[in-house]
Amino acid sequence: MNFKFRFVTLLLTLMLITLKYFLTNKGIFKITILSTSNQSINIDVVNMGNPHAVTIVPDVLTADVEHIGPQVESHARFPARVNAGFMQILDEKHIRLRVFERGVGETLACGTGACAAAVSGMRRGLLANEVEVQLAGGKLHIAWREGDVVWMTGPTTHVYDARLDLRYFQG
């Protein structure tokens, strides 16, 4: 078995494991962010194996992700930081989403963020059990029923080729 095949197999295995994270740390609460109006926002905390704070916005295209995202990410309520999701509900089966990932900034797509946003809307009674999530990088389909695992399906895209020098990892 060559290295490239083993690496691809490992990646696929990790992707399948990621799709099956259980939910913990439920709760909606308000946090205050710094702005000219010192506004508060409601967030829903969802754990998909990594922490997410989801807020509902009227329009993701005009949401101030660049300003609010870093404040949510590093808020005192999240000592290990958190991914900040900004969800626009189009109807019970369709949402738009932007995600400010902890330590990275805004990203084109975030699978766990899409799962967290969909589950947040489902728990609030605002979304159906199967939802299409539109991110800047494409669409994902999320399905979840209370007490079950979250299922994410969507396309894959080749983004990058790399070479690893295994000598770097040796003692």
Largest sheet: 9 strands, mixed
Which stretches are poorly predicted, pLDDT < 50 over at least 5 residues? Answer: 5-26
- Please tally the β strands and state the result: 9
Percent strand equals: 25-35%
The dominant shape is globular
What percent of residues adopt helix (DSSP H or I)? 10-25%
Q: For the CA atoms, what is the radius of gyration?
A: 17 Å
What is the structural class? alpha+beta
Task: Outline the structure in words.
- The chain is α+β, with helices and mostly antiparallel strands and 171 residues long.
- Strands 1, 2, 3, 4, 5, 6, 7, 8 and 9 form a 9-stranded mixed beta sheet that branches.
- A hairpin with a 7-residue loop joins strand 8 and strand 9.
- About 13% of the residues have low confidence.
What's the gist of this structure?
This protein is of the alpha+beta class and 171 residues long. It has helices at 3-18, 65-73, 111-123; strands at 28-32, 40-47, 51-56, 83-91, 94-101, 105-107, 130-135, 138-143, 151-153.
